From TrEMBL:
<feature type="binding site">
    <location>
        <position position="89"/>
    </location>
    <ligand>
        <name>Ca(2+) 1</name>
    </ligand>
</feature>
<comment type="similarity">
    <text>Belongs to the peroxidase family. Classical plant (class III) peroxidase subfamily.</text>
</comment>
<dbReference type="GO" id="GO:0140825">
    <property type="term" value="F:lactoperoxidase activity"/>
</dbReference>
<protein>
    <recommendedName>
        <fullName>Peroxidase</fullName>
        <ecNumber>1.11.1.7</ecNumber>
    </recommendedName>
</protein>
<dbReference type="GO" id="GO:0020037">
    <property type="term" value="F:heme binding"/>
</dbReference>
<feature type="binding site">
    <location>
        <position position="164"/>
    </location>
    <ligand>
        <name>substrate</name>
    </ligand>
</feature>
<feature type="active site" description="Proton acceptor">
    <location>
        <position position="67"/>
    </location>
</feature>
<feature type="domain" description="Plant heme peroxidase family profile">
    <location>
        <begin position="26"/>
        <end position="323"/>
    </location>
</feature>
<feature type="binding site">
    <location>
        <position position="250"/>
    </location>
    <ligand>
        <name>Ca(2+) 2</name>
    </ligand>
</feature>
<keyword id="KW-0376">Hydrogen peroxide</keyword>
<dbReference type="GO" id="GO:0004601">
    <property type="term" value="F:peroxidase activity"/>
</dbReference>
<dbReference type="InterPro" id="IPR019793">
    <property type="entry name" value="Peroxidases_heam-ligand_BS"/>
</dbReference>
<feature type="binding site">
    <location>
        <position position="71"/>
    </location>
    <ligand>
        <name>Ca(2+) 1</name>
    </ligand>
</feature>
<dbReference type="GO" id="GO:0009505">
    <property type="term" value="C:plant-type cell wall"/>
</dbReference>
<keyword id="KW-0325">Glycoprotein</keyword>
<feature type="disulfide bond">
    <location>
        <begin position="201"/>
        <end position="231"/>
    </location>
</feature>
<feature type="site" description="Transition state stabilizer">
    <location>
        <position position="63"/>
    </location>
</feature>
Amino acid sequence: MSPSRTCSWLIVLSVLLVCTTANGDRLKVGYYDKTCPDVQQIVQSVMAFRVGRDQSVAPAVLRLFFHDCFVDGCDGSVLLDETPFFESEKDATPNANSLHGFDVIDEIKSYVEHACPATVSCADILALASRDAVALLGGPSWKVQLGRKDSRVANRTGAEYGLPAPNSTLAELINLFKQYDLDARDMAALSGAHTIGTARCHHYRDRVYGYNGEGGADIDPSFAELRRQTCQSAYDAPAPFDEQTPMRFDNAYYRDLVGRRGLLTSDQALYGYGGPLDHLVKMYSTNGEAFAKDFAKAIVKMGKIPPPHGMQGEIRLSCSKINR
């Protein structure tokens, strides 16, 4: 083969590698060390201020990250407003009137743009803000791998059907997480994000009422009655996932599962069927350090879920709309 032909093949191969390399494959810690060295400090400062004023900001931002990554990868698509060309993921059934924290990401983005114009993606800002959300409520910290690009389109259908549902069975949860190369241990650890935040009555109503109005065999009767009282106040009345320490990132969520006091059907699905998952939940319930370690490891893994093959990304100047 001639040198010129070899060179041509190398060029083609290089182009193919660039085109097929997904977000998750090129992420690295320190991605912005030279181009935007203050980005992590900016994100942490805004998050500390906002969570200091309102702790509910932390679970809201963390939930945004989950709902972003589980729909076409961690590409900031959940942050996009609707346009004439695509429907917003914000308006999908699992997200409508329940996702919050968009203004926090927008505020961080404005400071980052001032410091480093057109450099840091909204997807990366969301990943960093999620890490800080957990740490600010007493949870673990981790090194965030960066280098994501922002999607130029949202996937409303994916948001309708690609997210864990409040009434998901264990088999459904395992299969859903498996699609993203997240195993049962990852799933159990990531579910611990429900140690902070709240859910509305229409999400846990079926669990606490059951078929006979008194809950089922897998729910503590006194807990079911308590949550029914909450539901009686309003159809969308919120209740904490963890009633003991609702705004502290700890392992109390798993103690609730062992006590059959999981708020959602999909929460309690992690415990009570026997086998390795029961042993894991019991271990987390007594060993907070093990849970923290596994959660940090699993969320780094989740943060590498790539966008669809061939997606053209960008660095959005505004997180709610694509660049023109």
